[in-house]
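Following up on my earlier thread - several people asked me to post the actual chain instead of describing it. Fair enough. Here it is, all 197 residues.
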Amino acid sequence: MGVLEKIQTLPAFFLGVFFLYWSLPLAALMNKVKFLKLAGKRNDAYGWGVALQQLFGVTMLRLPGPQLANPCGPIIFLSNHRSWADFYLDVVATEGNAQMLSRMAVALVFPMFMGAVCVIRSVILFQRGRNHEKEAFNNMIDRKMAASPVDGLIVYPEGHRSTLRHSLPLKRGMLNYAYIRKIPVQVIFCNAVLCLL
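Reply from S.P.:
Thanks for posting it. Predicted structure:
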């Protein structure tokens, strides 16, 4: 992508930043995230995802094939990461039954959004690029998953967003975690026009 093309995409980029930054208050105004509901089961992350899906007019089309896994206990959903829409599309695709694994840098860029998502325990933040002691990192994931109101975890095994026509090499950390912990894995492929389970 050339410099001119990048400049042409800036308005859409800033609009996307604005909506993501204010997405939880917008979801509350749309009555999808019910902050005042103090009793009973809540699924605020799913409400947030549905609100953004409706706000942007995205229709989810589930193609024939395997259904969404619904095991009793932890599950890891491996998803591609092609756009910022993946955050809410993946939450909707998993029917709100999974939190996201996200870099700490996202919390620095979107503190209002990520702060609220941390409060509702719908994200696990980690510091990328830091040499984590594997077992300590895995134990942290165990604790965060156990504390979450949902059993699933959405992982982007390519490590970051890419718009290339081919997949990037997979990061092995969470694949290794799933194997060691004997946690089932389901692949989800989503983009703004296609979502495969």
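Residues 193-197 have pLDDT under 50 and may be disordered. That should answer part of your original question.
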